[in-house]
Amino acid sequence: MAKFAPRIKGDQRELGLGRHITTQGRLINADGSFNVIRHSNSFWDNAYYDLVTMSNWRFFLMIFFTFTTINALFASLYLLGGTEQLSSTPTNSYFDAWMHAFFFSSQTITTVGYGHISPTSFSASLLASLESFFGLLFFALISGLLYGRFSRPVAKVLFSQNALISPFQNGTAFMFRMVNPRRSELVEAEVEVSLAINQRDEETGEIARRFFRLDLEISRIAFFSMAWTIVHAINANSPLYGLTEEQLMDANAEFLILLKGTDESNEQMVHARKSYISAEVVWNAKFSPMMGRTKDQVKMEVHSHKVGEYEHLN
Amino acid sequence: MAKFAPRIKGDQRELGLGRHITTQGRLINADGSFNVIRHSNSFWDNAYYDLVTMSNWRFFLMIFFTFTTINALFASLYLLGGTEQLSSTPTNSYFDAWMHAFFFSSQTITTVGYGHISPTSFSASLLASLESFFGLLFFALISGLLYGRFSRPVAKVLFSQNALISPFQNGTAFMFRMVNPRRSELVEAEVEVSLAINQRDEETGEIARRFFRLDLEISRIAFFSMAWTIVHAINANSPLYGLTEEQLMDANAEFLILLKGTDESNEQMVHARKSYISAEVVWNAKFSPMMGRTKDQVKMEVHSHKVGEYEHLN
Amino acid sequence: MAKFAPRIKGDQRELGLGRHITTQGRLINADGSFNVIRHSNSFWDNAYYDLVTMSNWRFFLMIFFTFTTINALFASLYLLGGTEQLSSTPTNSYFDAWMHAFFFSSQTITTVGYGHISPTSFSASLLASLESFFGLLFFALISGLLYGRFSRPVAKVLFSQNALISPFQNGTAFMFRMVNPRRSELVEAEVEVSLAINQRDEETGEIARRFFRLDLEISRIAFFSMAWTIVHAINANSPLYGLTEEQLMDANAEFLILLKGTDESNEQMVHARKSYISAEVVWNAKFSPMMGRTKDQVKMEVHSHKVGEYEHLN
Amino acid sequence: MAKFAPRIKGDQRELGLGRHITTQGRLINADGSFNVIRHSNSFWDNAYYDLVTMSNWRFFLMIFFTFTTINALFASLYLLGGTEQLSSTPTNSYFDAWMHAFFFSSQTITTVGYGHISPTSFSASLLASLESFFGLLFFALISGLLYGRFSRPVAKVLFSQNALISPFQNGTAFMFRMVNPRRSELVEAEVEVSLAINQRDEETGEIARRFFRLDLEISRIAFFSMAWTIVHAINANSPLYGLTEEQLMDANAEFLILLKGTDESNEQMVHARKSYISAEVVWNAKFSPMMGRTKDQVKMEVHSHKVGEYEHLN
After folding, report:
1. In whole angstroms, what is the distance from residue A12 CA to residue D252 CA?
2. Mutation target vs A (from B23, B38, B134, B254; most A CBs, 10 A cutoff)
3. What was the ipTM of the complex prediction?
């Protein structure tokens, strides 16, 4: 593995990823999350985070399941005291009585309270009073979570699936492309690209991971409202200078992309991450156009789905 | 078109608007939005954004329509099992029965639940239980959207309809005026003005759009609480120096205004945008006064509606 | 008035308060608001701002009044079709019938829906369906406003009622004191003091208002968790150097205080403002101590109510 | 106490903790709060802060107690007018009648409104109308508080229980360790360490507290997503240089740790504080490893609970 360590020089970047970092596998997954297992002690550390980041379907199923379980629990509690706890409880079968209590419970927890079933004993009245109180707390919690979910600042930026190494000016450049598919602008957008690469320590001979910041042609724009191609020229100052495709593979190179900006719809800062491992870098290709003008030359058009399209060169 | 390209020099500004930009038509519309069509793949990319930015009337009609549709749907579902599903359903006509079910549905989804109509079968009870659950989620969602709508950070700054080129010191200046019509201050307000202008590339002969930052007399103030006239002196350092009204028209000049500040009412950063195309620039005029003092000389007065008023000079 | 304009030199500060500013009266009121009348066109510009900033009592009375008015309106609407619209309507007097309808309305809008009164006609059912829908929107709006009210970032900093000019080192200093009465810290607190003062223009002879930034001994601290005395030393670099109490009065001097910091309880930036006019500046006095230690020397104590206490010196 | 004041030099840090600070006891408690008693005038200054920071159990008990108290109050009010105010009130005992009214009240305040109990008099109807209105406000308030509680930006960073003074390069270093136990990253994390230490004033002979900023090997990282060991090298530039364990004790040394960063889950700035008094500093020890790799070398693992583990060195 000696050939992959041609004494890279450059601006080392402190990413907080440590020295004990694995030299195999990727640091950042395709979806931008870190490739790490955290052994945490407390379920509650991540409860709110999980509830606002899980998919809509999982969230809905979870609260529906909770709703049904609470109702089932209260139905059983109402029946503990016997069938005379609630008005007009059927007495022919336990299942019918239980379903009767279940419906009463759901009418109580949602505060519908038709009244065709009503509590007839002291204990059932007390239980119903508690249940309606819990019900309001439960839906208050869901209200908050729903708002937390859809107001959460998220950068919905699409990245090209591959990064390219393309001809640029008189040499080559490392490039990738991003598009903002939303109608709300990302203002003061800023991007930072780091190269994570294995290097053998001169003294100890151990392989360690090093992080280099890559200079970009344009790293900050006033509005990220359409497409943006990020370009790092591979010149003599670049840590990539002189490296071949095979050397990048051998050195387990990974390009870490960090984007930040302010989402104009809610004026909150958003962050997006992306990584390209060396197998995701295509050499000698260029991105296909994805922006155009309307026929009357008056408006611009952006085709978001073309963000990853490229063509191989000769 | 050669006459419009007198080799403009100046601080080029990276706005993120790209090189493929159309050289006709305006970049930013009168309301501050970008003049661009985005072909996005997913409806959900913009769902929250649309729901919090649509007009109050459209929002209200949309949720009212949704409310009515859900009720109509559930009314039909209740009747699927026959007229004996709900208590006291009229049997004389399907329409009467359906309206009966519709009213029951609305009493269920809103959790009013008078009880003079109640579910009498197992399936109707189950359906009602589901409907009240959905109803609470629906109104929880609306609660969140309403809060999202009125707490959204928006800079309600009024801009003068026209920009002026007016006498200033010993020469002229490009000017426009803004007013903050609200009682909450915009603190640490900062404005940035860029000139977008067509230029012919020396080498390729192609016409491209260039962006120049214009120096301002005052670009940042501690409080934007009243009126603010932005002044760019057209001196030898200005990209506008020596250009005539016709040349600006020919070069499709557009002045892009970016304002940011912190709205003191909720302490959130807000951004406002405005653009003046060359046809909206009035030459040789000055703004009419819009601020005064009360008769007792003790308070200042601002007349917001006069923000765009100007007078032509001889 | 010539004596008040001893050619003040110093760092002029652009506060955004303009040149047309009145030279009488104060710029900033005692409560931190600007002393300005804004003639705005639209009620809606300030609706949300007013609703979240009005006093708790006014807010409560306003929504209670709205609640009652809507109920009264719907009560009248229910009775338009006659007394047979709602079940068990009393027919002896219009007032009794109206109150009956009023109670039904309040049971509908709050979604209580006991059911001892229920709609008996098509039109009343339809109206009740609408009312419950409006009711939920109304309380959803109030939910949001309540959250907007108590989560609004506000710096509850107490300022001393007077500023002092006190002995300091070998000369004197302009001083005032602030205290944070809350248990949540204000982190990275920063204060800026400007002097607004009348000056006669050398050339035109007109009196204009000038703004000078005053250098502070300490203008930024990591935590504003207790008391903080702000000190501007009146040395040769100070615009106040050599000015007497009378001269400050004559020149209508006003000290504008701007404080910002991050409230740790919600991590939002907050701003506070205060102004001292020359009549509120006490000469030759010093602030009384307001911090101490508990008897065991282990804890500090802050007495917030003493923030304005001072003693005259000989 | 003379031996503890070896003329410490260094970058003095303005923390806003004042000169009147106690020279005994700690400044910052183990949980990060300041060790200060604030005598505030107004309960309302801290009401919202207390409601969103109290423990979940205390919050739940508080609203449950409030709910029960309001119901008890209204139950008594309904009975003021006699037992004929509410339908089917039992007349055999006052307790039974009161519980009947209590259940009616809870059905009203939660807007369940079964209707098997309903107001039968004018005054009871009016009271019920008011109660349901208050009920909706009460739960709207709780909704907001719940959202305020779980959306509150809090840095759940775990600090090692002890700081260490360990061998480092050719000398020693002051070290402590932090871990982020959550799945959401803390981006652009920044840490600042100050030393609070007693010093005798050369001139007055009084003992005063001084604050020195300690230089850190790495004070800012792009992502705080795993573990982070903070290192201050004790070299000739360090205020700690040459001090012994006993001298630190005598001088009541306290290390103040301030961490800030942006929580990626809600993109809000968060702050964490920690302090180590000299008794919590362990000399000649090193932290045990807490990060590793999975067996396949592909993922990293973090063991949060090991954050404080260390081993003594011979």
Report:
1. 39
2. B38
3. 0.85
